[in-house]
Q: What sequence folds into this?
């Protein structure tokens, strides 16, 4: 596991490569019976795109905010592939996002197994690197992904269309 950058600073040299930088987070509201995701997607030119939304799949509700975290990671990879990137750096604050994919943690339920398998299958199309950031630590982009995930709870369930 690699440590993330301090205060959300994206290095200019990293952006010049054909690499996307993405921050992901999830949220959960037991009263609304919804989980949500938030993604901050940074292009090589420094421009920023954002995705957020929610879900209410019964099986995924059992995983609470983790379902949103997994969806955010998968959407980020899907977005990066659609944009033609050869690599993606995913910044996360929940260790399972990396550990299920790398095998450091055993995926024990259907959702985490599907997440692991999907992410591993995409590694044939794009280089995926993971970076752990501390939650709620004034990391600008991670804090924004957190806010987007909370905003997603206010939306109707569904996945966004990835536009190029």
A:
């Amino acid at each position: 596991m690699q440590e993330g950058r301090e205060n959300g600073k994206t290095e200019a040299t990293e952006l010049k490569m054909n690499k996307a930088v993405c921050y992901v987070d999830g949220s959960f509201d037991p009263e609304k019976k919804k989980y949500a995701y938030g993604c901050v997607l940074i292009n090589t030119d420094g421009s920023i795109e954002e995705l957020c939304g929610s879900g209410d799949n019964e099986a995924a509700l059992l995983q609470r905010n983790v379902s949103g975290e997994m969806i955010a990671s998968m959407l980020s990879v899907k977005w990066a592939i659609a944009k033609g990137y050869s690599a993606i750096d995913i910044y996360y604050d929940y260790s399972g996002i990396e550990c299920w994919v790398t095998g450091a943690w055993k995926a024990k339920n259907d959702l985490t197994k599907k997440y692991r398998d999907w992410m591993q299958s995409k590694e044939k199309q794009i280089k995926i690197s993971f970076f752990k950031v501390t939650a709620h630590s004034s990391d600008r982009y991670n804090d924004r992904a957190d806010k987007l995930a909370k905003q997603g709870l206010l939306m109707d369930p569904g996945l966004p269309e990835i536009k190029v």
Remarks:
- Confidence is low (pLDDT under 50) at residues 1-15.
- Residues 65-82 form the longest helix (18 residues).
